[in-house]
Model the fold of this input.
Amino acid sequence: MKALKVVGIILLVLIAAVVGGGTYIKTALPNTGPALDIKIERSAQRIQRGEYLANHVSACMDCHSTRNYQLYAGPIAPGNFGGGGEKFDQQMGFPGAFYAPNITPYALGSWSDGEVFRAITTGVGKEGEALFPLMPWGHVGQMDKEDVYSIIAYMRSLPAVKKDNPVSKADFPVNFIINTLPHKAHFTTIPNESDTLKYGAYLVNAAACVDCHSQTDHGSIIIGTEFSGGMEFKQPSGIARSANITPDKTTGIGNWDKAMFVARFKAFENISSSSLKVPVGAVNTPMPWYVYSGMKTSDLEAIYAYLRSIHPIKHEVNRFEKI
Ligand code: HEC
Ligand code: HEC
Done:
């Protein structure tokens, strides 16, 4: 009897801990502090820099517009620039249904600059809700503040797109875990372009290459798999897997030279995306080739230099598998 009572008490304590912990996670988190009281000047220089980053480096516009997956690499379809609505759900392997929100002034017009800044650098939305890290706020939060201001100035300059989208919903247990993810930003200073490795690392962070080129579990990168590829992108016709972009000679890009690397991206710069139809039944690539093809050659070269400097990992990836 006594033993039973002890077990009962332990159980009660455990239940209280779980309920208490759950309530804490749901009510007190996320908390990355109040939105800053800032007013971001929308200078022409910032808007231009922001346009470059949002369209060709950080791929903001790619996720927050409609993409046409009938075409190679899913270029942005005309007509909904920044209006959001792209769905990332369980069928694609995500722990819930997440929708890229509208980021044009139609939707963000009522947000203060500080609220937008907090959202994209710490993962906390206007109403204090956690943003699923598919939105690369962890990476934006490691950029130079000045670059983040430029991105915001550019977003503010977009023509308003009148479009309302469904609200994201995470599945259990990610609906709890998600609240523990947002954290304060760790801003950096943009390295000098002549410091190629550091500058390349800065761009690789800003482009969040690692988010696709690693393996993940419940939305978090599995430590030790960074840049070695293997993340799966499920499609009706089959599975695409991200490539190993570590300098391993047999399974990575160890045998690529700089010119080859740059050419692989620049191949998409001057061709009309509508000319590259994906054959029926073929597996398409989620690699945003069009986005990056607009990157400056010197920026791509810096990315190459950085990727050559990381630890090589032997990991064979079958990039395209039909079912
Ligand atoms: C890989 C796709 C992806 C990329 C790249 C991306 N976002 Fe997002 N973004 C999302 C998704 C999905 C959400 C919603 C997350 C959620 O609901 O939990 C989001 C949320 C947001 C929000 C919050 C809006 C709201 O109504 O809650 C803003 C602002 C935003 N993104 C701006 C940006 C900017 C600026 C960039 C580039 C620096 C960017 N996004 C890059 C997918 C993306
Ligand atoms: C949305 C996910 C996604 C993002 C973001 C992404 N990649 Fe990829 N990448 C892929 C996938 C999937 C493949 C494999 C399919 C293919 O080759 O097109 C790939 C292929 C590649 C290849 C070709 C490798 C080969 O063996 O042919 C290179 C190089 C590459 N990525 C580099 C990068 C770099 C550098 C970045 C960041 C600037 C980046 N990727 C960002 C998904 C992504």
